[in-house]
Design goal:
Neuraminidase, 43% strand, 5-stranded antiparallel sheet, mainly beta
Length: 347
């Protein structure tokens, strides 16, 4: 039998772009040619654009799990990641182009870039462990410079902003004058990382500081006019439909979206629900609770300190929970084959 001719490169690429990431991880072993194709920067960029599949990664105690974005009971699986077990408590910072950024704390804080699809990771040592609970991190990508950056706002006696460029492998530090940053991580929208802040003085209002990844310049946005500043500890920033959003979970859950970026008057409440709305739910008491993510269909992932609950305010209050996971934190990510060693040449 005559040997079969290899598929044309363009046809092979088109086929591979349609496959799940877990299959492509295995297909890298088929041949050196397939390995080179799947690991190339060009293929990875196309895969990020072509694939709409997103997944959830969440931490329960010090174990990491991944599952489909539309969380269902029993679909989550533990991810082997020995680094976590060896380096103490972790917190998830954010994701960008398939890379998940997390902070591990043992004798020192370490920033870890991790690709859940390829299971590859890279460690960036930061400093001795002094400010774990007074430090906020953010992670993002600036397409204008093709740089990935990690930003660290430290609320020490003299607050500082430190920026790490993965291209230059170096830190730059400056003073921080924009108010007290809460411990939640920065949220990436419109090329900037967004942090919720309290004013430096009691008379100052709470707000949102946007830190540009391209220029390192800051701008400040107001929170919705009706926002009660006593709810600041229960509020979290997020992304919904590509827009900056704010969700609050104290006595009820309210979801606000900034429809026009940078325009304070464009804050619009798009969802609101409470325990009284929970007629069809098996989870009787939601509040106080901390919303963790808002999906594109408006469902809200909630941590009420005993369950991780996905709640649908638009579908008669239907919800379900994962009762076996505690002490949770969750973020979503896109699957890709981007190497966490971004300073190395990508083929």
């Amino acid at each position: 039998m005559a040997p079969q001719k290899p598929l044309p490169h363009d046809l092979l690429t088109d086929i591979l772009l349609r496959l799940p990431a877990k299959d492509l991880v295995e297909f890298r072993r088929v041949s050196k040619a397939w390995l080179s194709l799947i690991c190339s920067q060009k293929f990875n960029n196309a895969y990020l654009k072509y694939s709409s599949a997103r997944r959830l990664v969440f931490r329960s105690y010090n174990q990491l799990y991944t599952c489909p974005l539309w969380l269902k009971p029993g679909q989550h699986e533990a991810v082997p990641f020995g680094f976590v077990r060896e380096h103490g408590r972790i917190r998830l910072v954010g994701s960008c182009n398939g890379l998940v950024c997390l902070v591990a704390s043992s004798l020192k804080e370490s920033i870890v870039l991790w690709n859940p699809a390829t299971r590859k990771h890279r460690v960036i040592d930061v400093s001795p462990k002094n400010y774990e609970f007074f430090t906020s991190f953010g992670f993002g990508y600036d397409p204008s410079s093709d740089y990935y950056k990690v930003m660290r706002v430290c609320m020490e006696e003299k607050p500082t902003l430190a920026t790490y460029s993965l291209r230059n492998k170096s830190w730059t530090t400056s003073d921080w004058y924009h108010g007290r940053v809460h411990h939640h991580s920065g949220v990436l929208v419109n090329g900037a990382l967004h942090f919720k802040v309290q004013g430096r003085y009691k008379r100052d209002k709470c707000g949102v500081v946007a830190l540009s990844l391209a220029t390192d310049q800051c701008s400040r946005f107001a929170l919705p006019v009706s926002f009660d500043e006593r709810d600041l500890d229960w509020a979290r920033l997020g992304v919904l439909g590509g827009c900056l959003c704010l969700y609050i979970g104290r006595y009820s859950t309210n979801v606000w979206v900034m429809k026009e970026y940078g325009v304070n008057e464009s804050w619009t409440e798009v969802a609101s629900f409470s325990d009284d709305d929970d007629a069809e739910s098996d989870h009787i008491r939601f509040f106080p609770a901390e919303p963790m993510c808002v999906w594109e269909n408006g469902d809200v992932l909630i941590d009420n300190d005993s369950n991780m609950i996905s709640y649908s305010p638009y579908d008669y209050g239907k919800s379900f929970g994962l009762t076996e996971v505690k002490d949770v934190q969750a973020i979503d990510y896109s699957e890709s084959f981007l190497s966490p060693h971004l300073d190395l040449p990508q083929t």
